[in-house]
Amino acid sequence: RKRSGRQPPQDDAEDIWQRLEAMEAEDDAEKQESRFDEAVDWRPEPGAPEVDAPFERLDRHGFFGGLFATTTRAMFSPGLFFEALPVNKGLGRPLVYAILISLIGHLLMLPWVLTALDTLATQVDSAALREVIMSAYGPRSQITQTIVAPFTTTLQMFFFASIIHVGLFVFQGGKRGFEATFRVLCYSCATAPLAIIPFVGPALALVWSMLIT
Questions:
Q1: Angle at 188 between CA 83 and CA 154, to 5 degrees
Q2: What was the pLDDT predicted at 7?
Q3: Measured on CA atoms in the order 76, 82, 83, 86, is the torsion positive or negative?
Q4: Do 71 and 193 form a contact (C-beta atoms < 8 A)?
Q5: Which long-range contacts (CB under 8 A, 24 or more apart) does 54-62 make?
Q6: Lowest mean pLDDT across 8-12, 92-96, 127-131
């Protein structure tokens, strides 16, 4: 007996299946990313898609959400973060992240640095020495450092990434290329906001960053 009704064209049926497969793939990626937050012992399964750094998916996380999520993941779950991080997505966004988070750390450090310098200057009897201290570390110097910070951070990232990658090459490491080393170093700057802690903050941020790297 003939079936009533109009049969959909073959092209329309294939298009529907392609859409369903795309939706399933997107759902799998979102589930994997949610597992990143829920399970601290999670590791990417063989053949599973890698999880981008939230800062590289600002369309999903938003600017501040992506910045915060990337910073907390890199600081507190570095093993998970770097294991799931793609290493071939370019140098631009990691470098922008390193510049922004380093600048934030510098700005957070300014209040207690300037307060300490002002207190120190009042304790110095020599006017000449006081002038040297304020010219080297005072407000004008800090403003200049803030302006040139993006350039100095960029130079530091490329310089130290090159040094680290050469060391990895010598010891049979760094097999995923310079880009992977550079991306790891940039995201290891996540500890920069610790500079807000007076006096010990910058040292703590440096040591923590080295451990993450």
A1: 125
A2: 53
A3: positive
A4: yes
A5: 55/93, 55/96, 55/97, 56/89, 56/93, 56/94
A6: 8-12
Tell the burial category of 77 from Cβ atoms under 10 Å away from its Cβ (0-12, 13-18, 19+): middle
Phi, psi of 177, rounded to the nearest 5 degrees? 95, 165
Compute the distance between CA of residue 178 and CA of residue 162 in angstroms, rounded to an integer: 8
Each residue of 170-197: pLDDT tens digit? 988 878 889 999 999 999 999 999 999 9
Contacts 24+ apart (CB under 8 A), 166-175: none
pTM of the model: 0.73
Give, for 88, the enclosing helix (H) or strand (E).
none
Alpha helices in the chain (DSSP H): 10-38, 58-61, 63-76, 78-84, 92-123, 127-137, 139-170, 178-187, 201-212
Sign of the four-CA dihedral 17, 22, 23, 29:
positive
Which residue pairs from 202-207 have beta carbons closer than 8 angstroms and sit at least 24 positions apart in sequence?
A: 202/109, 205/105
User: By the 8 A CB rule, do 32 and 49 touch?
Assistant: yes
pLDDT above 70 covers a percentage of the chain that reads 74
* Separation between Cα atoms, residue 195 and residue 180, nearest integer Å: 26
